[in-house]
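Risk register update: the risk of archive-format incompatibility is retired. Evidence:
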Amino acid sequence: MVSNPALGVLFHWLGGLASASFYVPYRGVKGWAWETYWLVGGIFSWIIAPWFLAGLMTKDLFAVLSEAPARAVFWAFFFGLLWGIGGLTFGLTMRYLGMSLGMAVALGLCAAFGTLMPPIFAGTFLTQVLGTSSGRVIMIGIVVCLSGIAVAGLAGLAKERTVSPEQQRESIKEFSLKKGLAVATLSGVMSACFAYGLAAGSPIKALTLRHGTATLWQGLPVLIVVLVGGFTTNFVWCLILNVRNRTGRQYFTPAQPDAATGPTPMISNYLFCALAGTTWYFQFFFYTMGETQMGRYGFSSWTLHMASIIIFSTLWGIGLREWKGSGAHAMRLLTLSLVLLVGSTVVVGYGNYLAIAR
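Archived output:
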């Protein structure tokens, strides 16, 4: 299959749109604690959707997983466990900082670690990245992306100085800059482990190709392994919170009617969680498709993914009025960040094109 960086960028934009959008359906969940709706949605994200689509789109899925090298399966699962910690704190980041600022801080760190560490550990950073013209163009794109993320963070700080606490909590009910920055930092570093898990699962990709899977879908079996690791971390933590907060009954029994909110809408809660979880999975469904189009610089997919997420999460944040009353300075910074992020995807895509055109 011939690589097509332009198509790869499009796939990564679709993945970014899915990732930026997944939290929106959770806003429709009523009467459930965070740990309850997070786990219900996660079952669709990490178990149902990955197995269903991999079973549908790949060949001999169970044979591939059973024949996969134990070392590849272990490391893909292990990095999935670590990524699960990032996923947990990512949800808290959204609660404390909102979609725009939360994703900018967490994904900025995630972009830096997730993009640069794989080629560094593989020993190809100096030769394949800095040592080639196409690799240097890609590095410029990465720097532009990180600059855009930094500007998005500055926009969030400008908003913090302008908007009153009452206005902040009107759009983000649990807004807390101090808590949000702490969990966003942990989330960003640990979330980068997803990229390491996908890299560790490369032998599984090779195996599924030998079984006859189309190149475009080769990453789907690896996603199963990485996401099982992420599910394990999230499952354990959510159950601990269910026990601690006595919220386990929410899965099965509607809460007593509340004068303000009324009875818990169980069916719609499950439907919203299913929609959120499935939408979340599609970010990596499209990510693995995009990665197949980027040629030998597949590591640059992580930058494209992060940039796309922040672009669309920022647009969602504007649409949901999270930036209401932020002031002209904050909005100028936000606009500049969008320009830089969109530009970074173009530059990275062009760098991959240069590698193919040579």
